[in-house]
Amino acid sequence: MAADIPNSPKRFFRLWAAIVVLMLAVMSFALASPPPASADCLTSQDHFYIALLAQRNIGPKPGYTECDLALHGRQTASVVRQAANPRAAAAYLALDIYYNTDLTADQAAWQVAAAVSAYAPEMIPIIRRTPVEEPSVA
Predict the structure, then answer these.
(1) Is residue 69 domain-resident?
(2) What pLDDT digit, counting tens, does each position of 60-93 carry?
(3) Is residue 105 part of a domain?
């Protein structure tokens, strides 16, 4: 009958041991987890993109890192690459950057051009193509 008593010392020590084991498991998981990401997230393309932006004094906003800036560049290049009209998409993105940041219109256009140059260089001839060079439909 002693085992049925809710406040028995045996039950107390079992509960206490379970809590200690649980706390140690949580603490060991927290200590064994990897450290937060560092600046090693940049590839050679990212370094090229950031160097192009630095030519016009463009850097990450306060609270952001170069990794965040590189991610934005990759997203910009991806949008231009996947657009039906890459030239219009690049122009739209430049306007969007201009109106939603504190960059000048020249800096916004440079940011889009740098993203395309670094991450989608195959799109440069398509974007630069003038209407005279468009293939004729005959």
Answers:
(1) yes
(2) 989 999 999 999 999 999 999 999 889 999 999 9
(3) yes
Helix axes 86-100, 66-82, angle to 10 degrees: 150
Which range marks the domain in which residue 102 is found?
A: 44-57+64-129
How many C-alpha atoms does 84 have within 13 Å on its Cβ side?
A: 0
Q: State the total domains in the chain.
A: 1
DSSP track, the chain:
-GGG-TT-HHHHHHHHHHHHHHHHHHHHHHHHSPPPP-GGG--HHHHHHHHHHHTTT--PPTT--HHHHHHHHHHHHHHHHH-SSHHHHHHHHHHHHHHHSS--HHHHHHHHHHHHHHH-GGGHHHHH--GGGSPP--
Is residue 39 one of the residues assigned to a domain? no
- Assigned domain for 95 exists: yes
Over the stretch 22-56, which tens digit does the pLDDT of each residue have? Answer: 887 777 766 665 555 554 788 999 999 999 999 99
